Structures are given as structure tokens and as C-alpha cells.
What we know:
Layout: E1 7-10, E2 13-17, E3 21-27, E4 30-34, E5 52-57, H1 63-66, E6 78-82, H2 86-89, E7 121-125, E8 130-133, E9 136-142, E10 151-157, E11 160-166, H3 189-202, E12 208-211, H4 221-238, E13 254-255, E14 261-264, E15 267-270, E16 274-278, E17 283-287, H5 294-304, E18 308-313, H6 325-332, E19 335-338, H7 340-347, E20 366-367, E21 372-376, E22 379-385, E23 394-400, E24 403-409, H8 432-446, E25 450-453, E26 457-460, H9 463-483, H10 489-492, H11 496-509
Parallel strand pairs: 4-5, 5-6, 6-7, 11-12, 17-18, 18-19, 19-20, 24-25
Antiparallel strand pairs: 1-2, 2-3, 3-4, 8-9, 9-10, 10-11, 13-14, 14-15, 15-16, 16-17, 21-22, 22-23, 23-24, 25-26
Amino acid sequence: MSELTPRELLPDLWMIEDTCNVYLVRDGNAAIAIDFGGGEWLGALPGLGIETLEHVLLTHAHTEQCHGLSRHDSWPFTIHAPGGEDTFLDPEKAGIFGPPPWFFMGCPLNYCPPPGRIAGVRYNIIGNGHMFWRGRRIRFMDTPGHGRNACSIILDHADKQLVFCGDAAHAGGTVYQPFHLEWDHWTGEGALAAWEGIVRLRGIAIDLLCPSHGPVIPDEPASMLNVLAERLMSFYHAKGQVSPGEPDRYLPMEALDCGAYRCSEHLYQFGGNGYLLVSETGEALVVDPFVADLGSLAELLEELGHVTPTAMAVSHYHYDHCDGIPALRQRFGAEAWLHPIVAEPIREPGSMFVPWLRPEPIEPDHLWPEEGAWQWNEYEFAITHWPGQTWWHCGFMAQIDGRKVFFAGDSFTPTSKWNGTGGFCAYNGSRFADGYVPSARRVIEWQPEVMAAGHSNYYAFAQSKFEKVIEWAGWAAEAVRALCPSGDLELDYHSVHEVVRRCSKVGAER
């Protein structure tokens, strides 16, 4: 389609459904556009009596808002964007070269940046600021959430106060693709920022609310914003404590001269993440080998004497739990035993768009069963898929020194650490009904005595903690679902990986 059909909302105001809603405001024979999309609609301007497009104002720097602007190095109109968005619109100018720095790290600063450089942008859309166009004062208001720098644009037209809110709000008191509110993998920082922006919007007169996706809201937008504010606060609370009121239940460990700790006669905790299980044979199993912990492991092995790592096991794919595999394989000939689901991103990182992923592939020496048992010397382990913090997570339990010890990775932690879990977010593959809930039920079923979790969290199991997790997961899922325009978590929330994959593919092809 060479032209997209404009729909008149008011005299001299049109909406065009491009990859986002593009709004055109005409004054005489000139116009401004709010957001740009792919830009195929430019051919429709003469039919609207528009001879000159003078300004394009971007609400935020997502590819849907502006990807067409990267087709040319110069345009006959002035492009304006929120301050700080040069990181995504002109990354080289912002001092960023090569692949996006977030690709293998945590949650990105922008889940869907534009595919190419957009030159000549003025970064003068600043909250509480303004610009003048043909005698009109166009005002800007901070409404972050979908982006840290996102702004709403306010102007008077046809005796009405119009608000172009970007993706801060969607009809029905929802948010388009609410995973954009997850600025990191465990806190509610983005949700809280979005709530504050909606409260700002709610406090002003709005005759017509014009979002970047979905229909315009002409009737009682303040009532809709009230609903959205409540839902955003529920989402923020869902990011909080998953097992309220539970004690931490840390277990005592004996400090060794080397700086590691003896958990029991044959089990040790070293560095920030690792555990060492020693067999009567003198062999050792390293759990969650992290490169930064290998010096601590070497000191522990020296203090123990005559102990050799021959096997490695990994709770989940995050690099701080597995990137030591190649070094231990080379140094000791130790073999890596991985759960099939944990192995997926580790062995093919180039095909995955997930946080905290080691960029170089690691091929396992052996695969565990998805559910079942594994014998290592005198220890028999029960193996299970154990999603929580991430989908690509497992749990494994064995009788060690007379106690059932469950190696728990990062899915659940003592209450005072990270709100009782390693955090949830869509990008990390966190899920509710088919993630946290079955994992909590599985550990209740197995009834371990000890949870040997990551980041040196060695604590006592309590069924009450995981019963609270199940309760939390129920209402947390509903809090997220309430923000989804379709009411479908799969379509609007868990789709993050496909959105990032699509944007990254376009960026790689530029």
C-alpha cells in the first residue's frame, strides 16, 4: 500500500493507522505530525490540503513510532524527540558503537529500538517544556513507562485540549505491550514511573486522548486513566514480595580459612554462586560454576586437598551460573551435565533473545532427563524442570549428609533477598500458572530440608513460604492480565521475545 487512509477526528485533525497511530494537525496549508510510523502516508498529504509538513514530534523511540525516518539522512521537516532518546535514534552520536550493549545483559533500555540511525533530530521534547508552532504553544509532559524518556504532547485545537500520550495509555485502562514497563528483571521501577505519568495526565483537562495504539478516547478519559492508575499500582505491587511475612530461615555455615563455607561434611559454598559436593571417591561436583568464582574454588580445593572436580551441574542458563564450564572442563576434564531446557539457550545463544546470556555457546557433555533421576557416585539426584525467575531453570535434590538438599538456583530466595524470588519479567521467561505455581507445588511435594540457592542463599525449606508463592502467583497474573488490551497474557505480555527478535532482525539487516 503506497498510501494509508487518514481518518478525520476533528476539523484539520486526522489519524492514520500506520505501524502506530500517526496524527496530523493542519494549520492553513502546513501541518505537524505526532509520531511517524513507516511514513507511507506522506503521499496522502496533498489530498488533505497539506503542502508542507513542518514538524514531526516523536513521543518515544520505538521502531513502530519512527522506523520510516531512518530511510533518509535528511528530511524537509524538523524532527523532534524526547531528551535522552539519542541513545536509540542516533547511537553513534551518543557514543554507542557495535551491537546493542544490552543484548547479552539484563533487560534492555529499549525492547524495540529503531532499525537505523535517524539524523538531524532535535532532542527538545522535555517534560514541563514547550515549543511554538504558528502561534500555538505545544506543551510536553513526562509520561515514562513504555520508555524512560517518553513524553505526552498537549496542544489546543478546534476549541479542545488534545493529548497525544504515546503508549502511556491504551483504551480500556490498559497498556500496549505491558512488558515495556519492565525496566529490569525484578523491580517495579518502570511500573511506578508509568503510574506517576498517568497521575500527571489524570490531573489535566483532556477533551480527546490520542494514544499510539488502539482507538482514541473521546469520552471521560479521566475515568479511564483512573482505572489504569489502579492497575499500574497493582502491577507494581505484584513486583513486590512473593512470600510476605516469612522469615529468611538462613542456615548456619562454617567459615573456612580460604573464605568458603562448609554447609555440611561434604557440601561447601564458595564465591558468590557456587556449591561443591564432595564424594567419598575424592571426586567433586561443582554446582553453578561462575568464572568470577573460580579463584575461590581453587582456594577451596587447595584447603581441602586431594579433591578433583569431575562433574558440573547448572540450575539455569544465566551466565553467572554456567560460564565457568569451559575453564573447569579444560583444567580438570570435568563434564557438564545439563537439563535439556537449561541447555537450550546455552548451546545456541545466537538464536535466543533473553537476558544474562553468555554470548559464546557451551555444548553439554551429557543431558539429564527432563524429569527423573541421575546417579553421581553415591548421590542419587531427583531432577525436575523448575521455572520461576526464568523458564530455562531446573531443580535437583539429593540426600547429603543425612538431609534432603534441593539445589534451587535463583527461582526462590529468602524473603529479604529480591522480594523472595529472583524476580519476574516476561523477557526472562517468567511465567505464573505454568511457571511459579508448578515449581512451588513440586518443592512442596518433594519436602526438602535445605534449599541451596544461588548467590550464597543457603536456607531451610518451609512449606508455608511456597504456599504463599502460589497465592501470590494467582493475583500477580491477574494484575498483569488486567493491563493487556486483549486480556491475553500470551498475546500481549509473553510475546516480548518475538517483538525483540523482530526488531533485532531488522536492525541486523540495515
